[in-house]
Amino acid sequence: MAIIAPSILSADFGRLRDEVQAIETAGADWIHIDVMDGHFVPNITLGPSIVKTIRKSTKLPLDVHLMIERPENYVEAFKDAGADWISVHVESTIHLQRTLNLVRELGVKPGVALNPSTPLYFLDHIWDDIEMVLVMTVNPGFGGQKFIPEMLRKVQTLKKKSERVAPMIQIEVDGGIGVHNISELKSAGASIFVCGSAIFGSGDYKNTISRMRESLRS
What we know:
eight-stranded parallel β-sheet; 8 strands; alpha/beta
């Protein structure tokens, strides 16, 4: 089943609670939360307190994407704030398997994220430790970027590999995704679609999500 996960990074933070409730009413499946530290990526965004506020505003699963150095030091805080999924970058921690095991031990579903230039072989020894792979389809750090076309082939390759070694793994894509390319990415093998400005910048969240679902059915 295809999952549409609006990225709250593109919302109006002056009315965050209203925005969260609006996308839930509009038909979103998850809420994607980008956490940036200004070191791993050149931007600073949300912390556990904002995640806790979002958790109080919705019953939707919270998909927390940690774009931070040493994520192992913060996993528990985001779990306590209400995260249902936590994804960490393979590039961000020396002890990746230990960090993923910590996420699972805390009762949260673990995912791993890959920057556009990071090869898929980084997954070779952690398939049993994850439930999702997040393929960044832009270079992380800022919303509103254009999709990198080469990432379509990366998703296709990942899907073929995962079918052989870990068929239950879900593939999430994040960056430059909208009505114009969501169907292509589903055909390539993705099942979770993070959409930021395509939804929050549309002026009609419900209509945009409905159009995405139409594209996914075609």
